[in-house]
Amino acid sequence: MILPIYLYGHPVLRKVTKDIPLDYPNLETLLDNMFDTLNESKGIGLAAPQIGLEDRILVVDLSAIADRDPAFKDFKRVFINAHIIERDGAEEIIEEGCLSIPDIHEKVPRKHRIRIQYLDEHLQPHDEIFEAFKARVIQHEYDHLEGIMFIDHIFGIRKQMIRSKLNDIIRGDVKCSYHVKSKPDRVKK
Questions:
Q1: Residues 6+ apart with CB under 8 A from 79
Q2: Residue ranges in the chain whose pLDDT is less than 50
Q3: pLDDT tens digits, residue range 64-99?
Q4: CATH number of residue 110's parent domain
Q5: Where do the DSSP E strands lie in 120-174?
Q6: Euclidean distance between CA atoms 93 and 136, whole angstroms
């Protein structure tokens, strides 16, 4: 099922998520819905707050951009109760966008390498290291679990330049090719 993606300005996007219990009801269905929603919106990552949940779950599917790097072809992951343990390496500044902040792209600094502990879709524990673009995407989605959005990493004149676009999103004055929820009481297509 395709779920609406919550847009900038919705309070759920600023909440810190909680670990889910191992007996979380309908987890498999939720994960399927998250991947369906991600694919429908042509995104590469989606965190639970972006669909209105305060749960520590994120999904990543880089297959849509496998033409950039063949290593992305089979990179489809579920991260449940994820916690980044380390961030290190050089800080790289690369342009990012977000399904919850449509039509805004800004350069964001992120560490090259992360170590993350999480459960997969079978609730099996993992402790892994990711680097480069994979680390960037995971960090971007992980920020959502912490109530942080990529625009929180930009400052000064760049932040001022996007202020009116952000206000448009808050007002629901934005068009998206995917199903969105712009305010706690409004759903748009």
A1: 57, 58, 59, 60, 116, 118, 119, 120, 138, 141, 142
A2: 189
A3: 999 999 989 999 999 999 999 999 999 999 999 999
A4: 3.90.45.10
A5: 125-131
A6: 10
Give catalytic status of residue 128 as yes or no: no
Cα–Cα distances in angstroms (integers) from residue 34 to residues 29, 123, 146, 170, in the given order: 9, 17, 18, 23
Q: Which residues have a Cβ under 8 Å from the Cβ of 74 and sit 6 or more positions away?
A: 63
Q: Is 141 exposed, middle or buried (0-12, 13-18, 19+ CB in 10 A)?
A: buried
End-to-end CA distance of the chain: 15
Parent domain of 96: 5-188
> How many domains would you assign to the chain?
1
- The closest alpha carbon to 145, from 81, 61, 78, 76, belongs to 81
The one catalytic residue among 40, 106, 128, 141: 141
State percent of the chain over pLDDT 90: 91
